[in-house]
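Hi there,

I know you've been waiting on this one. I reran it after we fixed the sequence typo, so this is the corrected version. Both the input and the resulting structure follow.
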Amino acid sequence: MTTPVTEPGLRLTVLVGESDNWHHRPVYTEIVHRAHAAGLSGASVFRGIEGFGASSMIHTQRLLSLSEDLPVAVIVVDAEEAVRAFLPQIAELTDGCPVTLDACEIVRSQGPGPGIEGEQG
């Protein structure tokens, strides 16, 4: 069994509303595309089933109270320097949105094998 190689990293999490837009495009989509253009390792978007934000209004996916503005989390993980350099590129998108940074460990695969979306590790 091969011991995985780890390195320190930084996780950026941006919490937005599903209906938040930037120039007729969802904010979460704009963040992902900017992360890709910046050459970051990866970004993922997770749609919440229930939550509330600054408005204190609870949004939920339950059948009897359908919401079109569910919470969305955009998560980017990369080396600390890369993530910190990316922050100014999304500052205009995240004004008023909760943004968090968390230290993490990035696990790098050593051998061949399937990665995300069929990429080799």
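Quick highlight: The two ends are 16 Å apart (CA to CA).

Best,
R. S.
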